[in-house]
Design brief:
The chain has about 350 residues and is α/β, with parallel strands linked by helices. The chain has two domains: about 170 residues, Rossmann fold (3-Layer(aba) Sandwich), CATH 3.40.50.1260; about 150 residues, 3-Layer(aba) Sandwich (Rossmann fold). The chain is about 35% helix and about 15% strand. The chain contains eleven helices and 16 strands. The strands form four sheets. The chain has a six-stranded parallel β-sheet, sandwiched between helices. α7 packs parallel to α8. The protein is elongated and about 65 Å long. The termini are close together. The mean pLDDT is about 95.
């Protein structure tokens, strides 16, 4: 896969697709993981002498119309906080045949939400070409791993006009997730939680042949998930509330899982093991995150939006926790693990 380590970007205008689809509540970004994950690529391009970096992203689902509730303006403010030594501009999407006018001292420009134009989700060549022409772009860097499973203008159509290279985040995601699929060190442990068995069953089936152990917890186990496969351990006890609802896996199941984690050399975790929004029922998920984050002799991958968010919050208070990958990918990570076609990655390899 071609990456930014393979190219000369000196004095070039570089278009970078990032994933700044971050949660915002009451005008505040509540989790900036995806923004921080883009910084190594931005810094690498700056250090390599890029003339200007144009960042593009989407936020939410504004259905092709301008909507202040989905503006990336808050992201621009966060970027300025994270990169205090850089002047960062924030600009609307260019109109047709409009040449961008950016002051020379602005090296980084973030454009408004791509999905304010229906052309993004329609994979419109005209839409992305207008951005390319307006900013006189020389090459394209795909660093928004979380959108690489979508055939959108900024993941797919862009390849018709520019050479496409992987950013450092995409390279990291693909390297770690690819290692799990192609050559995982054994024993391999898959930990499955969450609420919807239909979302998790394909992953369980995919890993049955290569995993040494699969642990099923969360609401899936509480609702009575069944299997005859001896490789799959289903939580056998639960912590309940006063109404008898099973809201976390219990001490026996947690101890069993801890043993699997201790022995494993490759661990994939997708889905919280309990109703972790309530600290009283976050015990199993916390223990799992801590045990995985303390392992130095294994490949440890955390994927799935709720799971990565939980782990990120835990890492704020536990600075020593470290993982091979806390994936920014969400659905993209799962589709990659399942071997589905990824238009955004295919564009890089073209």
């Amino acid at each position: 896969m071609k990456t930014i380590n393979d190219i000369d970007v000196k004095n070039k205008n570089v278009l970078v697709r990032v994933d700044y689809n971050v949660p915002i509540q009451e005008s505040k970004i509540t989790d900036d993981l995806r923004i921080r994950a883009s910084l190594p690529t931005i810094q690498k391009l700056l250090d390599s002498g890029a003339k200007r970096i144009i960042l593009i992203s989407h936020l939410g689902r504004p259905d092709g119309e301008e909507n202040p509730d989905f503006s990336l303006s808050k992201v621009a403010e966060k970027l300025r906080d994270l990169l205090p030594n850089q002047k960062i501009g924030f600009y609307p999407l260019p109109k047709t045949d409009q040449k961008a006018e950016i002051p020379a001292d602005i090296k980084i420009a973030l454009l408004e939400n791509l999905r304010f134009d229906p052309g993004e989700e329609k994979n419109s060549k005209e839409f992305i070409k207008n951005i390319i022409d307006s900013y006189e772009i020389d090459l394209f860097v795909q660093d928004g791993f979380a959108v690489t499973h979508r055939a959108h203008a900024s993941t797919d159509a862009v390849k018709n006009f520019l050479s496409v290279y992987a950013g450092l985040l995409v390279e990291k995601e693909v390297k770690n997730l690819g290692k799990i699929i192609e050559n995982p060190e054994k024993p391999v442990l898959l930990i499955i939680g969450g609420a919807k068995v239909e979302d998790k069953q394909p992953l369980i089936e995919k890993f049955l042949s290569q995993a040494d152990n699969i642990v099923v917890g969360g609401k899936i186990a509480a609702d009575g998930y069944k299997t005859s496969d001896k490789k799959i351990y289903i939580a056998e006890d639960f912590d309940e509330n006063t109404e008898g609802k099973k809201l976390d896996i219990g001490p026996l199941a947690t101890a069993k899982l801890a043993g699997f984690i201790t022995d494993a050399k490759t661990i994939i975790w997708n889905g919280l093991l309990g109703y972790a929004e309530d600290p009283a029922y976050a015990t199993a998920s916390t223990i799992t995150a801590e045990l995985m984050g303390e392992k130095t002799d294994a490949t440890t991958v955390v994927c799935g939006g709720d799971t990565t968010g939980f782990v990120e919050n835990l890492m704020k208070d536990h600075k020593t926790l470290n993982y091979s990958l806390v994936s920014t990918g969400g659905g993209a990570a799962l589709e990659f693990l399942l071997g589905k076609e990824m238009p955004g990655l295919k564009a890089i390899q073209a």
